[in-house]
Amino acid sequence: MHDESGINLHVQVERYLRGLISSGELHPGDPIPSEAELCRLFHASRSPVRQAIASLRTAGLLSGGQGRRSIVQSQASTQSFSTLLSFTEWCHSMGVTPGQRTLELARRPGHPDITEQLGLEPGSPVVEVLRLRSMNGTPAMLERAAFPLEVGQHLLAFDTDSGSIFEHLSKQGVELYRAENTIGAIPAPEEDAELLGVAPHSPLLRVQRRTSDSRGRVLEVADDRYLPELTEFTIVNTRAGAAGLTQQPR
């Protein structure tokens, strides 16, 4: 379900509630607006409102439910990997100022590994981006991403130093619906070490991501490399449901 902006209503509701929490307008222990209030505010049915609230519960931002008004949890600084957020949105949800410096933006024939992951013919053109991301002015992560040309062409005239690539693509009508994240660790190659200001072979957290639309078509492959002292991943297990993986700054 979408409104005129083309963004799913449940995503709009979720972003609105996240904004209330990250801005401090809602504090731990405060109830969120009722379902009826949110339905009126977004001219929505209860289904997308409940979907947004369920997503925030999974993220550990809300507790309650089952007939009770959901309230803000004290651990509102975590981001769940069950919710697709950009680096910019994640930082804002923490009250952290994100930054970015574009080191490369190019259209070129894709490397065989990249085109295979994107489901393209070998040598098909792709748009690749390399950015240094920061948190409150401190280098935190190297972001490498590749897009099929039909998606990446929207970036060629965009100032990639100005903010979120995901937000810009969403405004262009690109549906970024689902992401698969593979998390590991690698020793920093010399180029990465120099850009992040660490010694070569220092440990880096690595998140490899494939983002697709609701039809399963892969629209982005990315390789993000974080300084481990600035972020960490936490897995939360419950007997009643699936494990939730969260990311938070140190």
TrEMBL record:
SMART domains attached to this UniProt entry: HTH_GNTR, UTRA
GO function terms (MF aspect): DNA binding; DNA-binding transcription factor activity
Highest taxon, organism lineage: Bacteria
Domain HTH gntR-type: 7-75
Classification via InterPro entries: Bact_HTH_transcr_reg, Chorismate_lyase_/UTRA_dom_sf, Tscrpt_reg_HTH_GntR, UTRA, WH-like_DNA-bd_sf, WH_DNA-bd_sf
GO terms for biological process, alphabetical: negative regulation of DNA-templated transcription
Keywords tagged on the record: DNA-binding, Transcription, Transcription regulation
Pfam families reported in the protein's UniProt record: GntR (PF00392), UTRA (PF07702)
PANTHER family: MANNOSYL-D-GLYCERATE TRANSPORT/METABOLISM SYSTEM REPRESSOR MNGR-RELATED, MANNOSYL-D-GLYCERATE TRANSPORT_METABOLISM SYSTEM REPRESSOR MNGR-RELATED
Protein name: HTH-type transcriptional repressor YvoA
Species of origin: Corynebacterium lowii
